[in-house]
Amino acid sequence: MSGEEYLPLVKITPDEKSHITLKDAKHCKTCRLRACLYVCPSAVFFWDELEEKLDIFWRRCVECAACEPACPQNIEYENPRGGYGVSYHL
């Protein structure tokens, strides 16, 4: 599902590189809350039960930055580079 299908009033021009990174992917295995799964309004974060890892679908990020305060010890959020990211239209 692309960003445009997920949120019809938001145009997302994804960069080739994610603007959301994990400091330590192993940390997610021991995290009990996994708050990132619940705070993101566009479902950027997904826990893969089979592989026991966090997947980040950064291409549909709406740049609210709620993920970093939800997990400041492991998530690093930056705004996308100029020309990429969200533009809102009606």
TrEMBL record:
<keyword id="KW-0813">Transport</keyword>
<dbReference type="InterPro" id="IPR017900">
    <property type="entry name" value="4Fe4S_Fe_S_CS"/>
</dbReference>
<keyword id="KW-0411">Iron-sulfur</keyword>
<keyword id="KW-0408">Iron</keyword>
<dbReference type="Pfam" id="PF12838">
    <property type="entry name" value="Fer4_7"/>
</dbReference>
<dbReference type="InterPro" id="IPR017896">
    <property type="entry name" value="4Fe4S_Fe-S-bd"/>
</dbReference>
<dbReference type="InterPro" id="IPR012206">
    <property type="entry name" value="Fd_FixX"/>
</dbReference>
<dbReference type="GO" id="GO:0005506">
    <property type="term" value="F:iron ion binding"/>
</dbReference>
<feature type="domain" description="4Fe-4S ferredoxin-type">
    <location>
        <begin position="52"/>
        <end position="81"/>
    </location>
</feature>
<feature type="domain" description="4Fe-4S ferredoxin-type">
    <location>
        <begin position="18"/>
        <end position="50"/>
    </location>
</feature>
<dbReference type="GO" id="GO:0051536">
    <property type="term" value="F:iron-sulfur cluster binding"/>
</dbReference>
<keyword id="KW-0249">Electron transport</keyword>
<keyword id="KW-0479">Metal-binding</keyword>
<protein>
    <submittedName>
        <fullName>4Fe-4S ferredoxin iron-sulfur binding domain protein</fullName>
    </submittedName>
</protein>
